[in-house]
Amino acid sequence: MNYCSHCGAPVHYAIPDGDNRERHICTACDTIHYLNPKIVAGCIPVWEDKLLLCRRAIEPRHGLWTLPAGFMEQGETLSDAARRETREEANAEVELDELHTVITLPHVSHVQMLFRARLTAPVFSPGVETLETQLFREEEIPWDELAFETMRRTLRHFFADRRRGLFQLHVEDIPQAPPKGG
Ligand SMILES: [Zn+2]
To answer: How many whole angstroms separate alpha carbon 70 and alpha carbon 81?
Structure first.
């Protein structure tokens, strides 16, 4: 941020009085611009024993597979966002079950929250940000072509929970960017 979104004057980077970390502060109107982490909402759409994955038509990780997920919009609930992203990326309708993973990525200030979900029908097709949509059995998951470490972890937890017949919420952190492709 270089300019104040309130008045257009330049901002500087400093610790406000009574605060403990640096913020963007307007040099004219003194507005403090707080930046906070973003929430990525999504789901694991299930049909029978298969999961729906989307192959990305956008950067980053163009051409790799992911679960439907994206940034929450203002005024939206977490579950609305998960359903909307699934509709936008896969033209699919889901009924959400419990929250399955909450993964924090402090280096990019994202918190990813993914629900388990059921497709209401085996009807799906690529949205504008997707090259391809496909149902996969566990043994068919393209582990080496997944777009994100968060998705790899979410899928591993899902299959492990399903095998033992007990789903639970998994809360974890990924402190640094994993190695490329990792
Ligand atoms: Zn200002």
So the answer is: 8
Report the CATH fold assignment for 38-173: Nucleoside Triphosphate Pyrophosphohydrolase (3.90.79)
Cα-to-centroid distance, 18 and ligand 1 (Å): 20
Distance 25 CA to ligand 1 centre (A): 8
Q: What is the pLDDT of residue 176?
A: 78
In this predicted model, what pLDDT tens digit does every residue of 34-86 receive, in sequence order?
999 999 999 999 999 999 999 999 999 999 999 999 999 999 999 999 999 99
- Give the Å distance between the CA of 156 and the centre of ligand 1: 47
Q: How far, in Å, from the CA of 16 to the mean position of ligand 1?
A: 15
CA–CA dist 52, 140 (Å, integer): 11
pTM for the whole thing? 0.89
Cα 96 to ligand 1 centre (Å): 42
The yes-or-no verdict on residue 181 having pLDDT over 70 is no
Q: How far apart are CA 39 and CA 74, in angstroms?
A: 11
Distance of CA 76 from the midpoint of ligand 1 (Å)? 28
Architecture of the domain spanning 1-35: Single Sheet (2.20)
Per the CB < 8 A criterion, the answer to whether 122 and 87 are in contact is no
